[in-house]
């Protein structure tokens, strides 16, 4: 199993942080599009690292055009000598329309399939000399001249990973992406009962193989070097589970463990700003369904026993244990 870690978005701190992650033995460094651009830290990291993979997890797809993403993906993959993974997610309508001021189409899975296909058509023009003749329902790309065609093409296109929760977007990932980023708000039951069958439908539709696809899962972990740090980790994770659980689109995940009725309660409380109280509704049974809860020495075994036959790469927060213990977890996961 490959093991990834989050990368700081503080550009001044990136060189030191990426060096630390490589020294720790991480396989990948991840950035998320939250308060900062997800691509700039990876550009800095690409010039300050040698082997670690660099991935957006995620960049918001619908706030950008396929051409913009194709350029970003190409440049980072070329500069990192083939180490970049373009991780994309759709986000939800309010963010696309109200935060990014971009149009929202009511078939996001269909649009995502087309967006990734359009990127691949652009890359085929750059790398293989194919004429650019992409015409879809949402995107049209039909103009490419030598002035706008990159020449540093020896590393080809980056891998594309797609974040998904529901079965329709998951099937799209199986059809057109190189990997899937599983949402942290996922249970083992949901992975096996919903995610894997939907991926198989996508593979079958596109004539692809599971062996050529990666599943990345940033699973929740609750651990600590002492009782205080353990309780801090537990409080953090229960709040995160409650926050995600308040989202109507994620009710199916709660349904997978028989807790679907909790979604409406959490949603109502979120509208009242009761974030702390929401976390208190996450029982130990619900917590254990979403998170690996274990002493540091047992964390890797817990992740591998649940997900070792499903997941190709993982990431989790181990900051509540000393660096030496973190290194043992990383090494055990990579060996597993």
How would you describe this protein?
- With 336 residues, the chain is α/β, with parallel strands linked by helices.
- Helix content is 49%, strand content 14%.
- The strands form three sheets. Strands 1-2-3-5-8-9-10-13 form an eight-stranded parallel beta barrel, surrounded by four helices. A two-stranded antiparallel sheet has the order 6-7.
- A hairpin with a 4-residue loop joins strand 6 (134-135) and strand 7.
- Helix 3 (66-79) packs across helix 5.
- It is globular and about 60 Å long.
Helices, strands, pairings?
Elements: E1 2-6, H1 14-24, E2 28-31, H2 39-46, E3 53-56, E4 59-60, H3 66-79, E5 84-89, H4 93-99, H5 108-128, E6 134-135, E7 140-141, E8 159-164, H6 167-176, E9 179-182, H7 188-206, E10 214-217, E11 220-222, H8 227-245, H9 251-255, H10 261-271, H11 275-280, H12 284-290, E12 291-293, H13 296-307, E13 313-315, H14 323-335
Parallel strand pairs: 1-2, 1-13, 2-3, 3-5, 4-5, 5-8, 8-9, 9-10, 10-13, 11-12
Antiparallel strand pairs: 6-7
Helix pairs in contact: 3-5, 5-6, 6-7, 13-14
Observed structural traits:
336 residues; alpha/beta; eight-stranded parallel barrel; two-stranded antiparallel ribbon; 49% helix; globular
Concise description?
With 336 residues, the chain is an alpha/beta fold. 49% of the residues lie in helices and 14% in strands.
- The biggest beta sheet, please? 8 strands, parallel, barrel
Query: Could you spell the SSE succession in H and E letters?
Result: EHEHEEHEHHEEEHEHEEHHHHHEHEH
Strand content: 5-15%
Taking all Cα atoms into account, the compactness measure Rg is: 20 Å
Shape descriptor: globular
Average pLDDT, rounded to a whole number, is: 95
User: Which range best describes the helical content: under 10%, 10-25%, 25-40%, 40-55%, 55-70% or over 70%?
Assistant: 40-55%
Reading side by side through the largest sheet, how are the strands ordered? 1-2-3-5-8-9-10-13
Distance between the termini: 6 Å
Number of helical elements: 14
